[in-house]
């Protein structure tokens, strides 16, 4: 019995390590301008990646889907992370000004008024408060930004693993796959198309691995 418990603990720790990897590996690409952001090392490492080799070890996603997505991301970085097309597409999708083709905030899709800081944002904020999780970014950024939520997923896996399933089931998987499908269709650049595909495959695979039953909201966008 002791050996079985020890093995289960080790398996859970390994799984949470994989969850943390997915969150920390993907979040910087949603949060950082390729030219002026703080993820230069992440972009540089991705540009040199062997897509097939990386896909074989990528957690939760089907290997073929991961390879196709990673190949698109590598292709998108062929001209460098400071390439005008890549930078323009990041700013078009995540910064503005102007109408966002695929807004990166959950409440835009789940709130009847399609607004930021909607009901789902407030629900996430209340959950964080009850769990004693503090923000590390300025208060003007909605908590349900896809990049922030991936970063929080990594934080929870590393520091509060008992909260991961609840967070996925009630706050992230409710809208993120839908948003990522919208982003994939809306983007004009292979890097962000691959990023959307890889993130969606990873999150859906994680939900399946954890056997989570997610109640989807009505999407208004």
TrEMBL record:
Signal sequence extent: none
Listed SUPFAM superfamilies: TorD-like (SSF89155)
Entry superkingdom: Bacteria
Keywords: Chaperone
Short name of one Pfam family: Nitrate_red_del
UniProt cross-references to InterPro entries, sorted A to Z: DmsD-type, DMSO/NO3_reduct_chaperone, TorD-like_sf, TorD/DmsD_chaperones
Presence of keyword Cell inner membrane: no
Protein name, UniProt field: Tat proofreading chaperone DmsD
Name of the encoding gene: dmsD
């Amino acid at each position: 019995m002791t050996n079985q418990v020890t093995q289960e603990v080790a398996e859970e720790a390994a799984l949470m390590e994989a969850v943390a990897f997915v969150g920390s590996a993907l979040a910087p690409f949603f949060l950082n301008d390729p030219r002026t952001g703080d993820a230069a090392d992440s972009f540089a490492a991705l540009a040199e990646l062997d897509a097939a080799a990386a896909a074989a070890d990528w957690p939760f996603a089907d290997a073929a889907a991961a390879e196709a997505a990673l190949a698109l991301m590598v292709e998108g970085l062929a001209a460098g992370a400071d390439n005008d097309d890549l930078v323009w597409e990041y700013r078009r999708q995540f910064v503005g000004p102007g109408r966002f083709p695929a807004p990166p905030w959950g409440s835009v899709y789940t709130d009847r008024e399609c607004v930021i800081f909607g009901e789902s944002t407030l629900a996430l904020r209340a959950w964080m408060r009850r769990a004693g999780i503090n923000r590390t970014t300025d208060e003007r950024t909605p908590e349900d930004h896809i990049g922030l939520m991936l970063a929080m997923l990594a934080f929870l896996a590393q520091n509060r693993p008992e909260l991961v399933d609840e967070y996925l089931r009630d706050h992230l998987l409710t809208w993120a796959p839908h948003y990522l499908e919208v982003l994939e269709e809306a983007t004009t650049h292979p890097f962000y198309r691959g990023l959307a595909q890889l993130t969606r495959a990873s999150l859906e695979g994680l939900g399946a691995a954890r056997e989570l039953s997610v109640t989807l909201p009505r999407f208004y966008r």
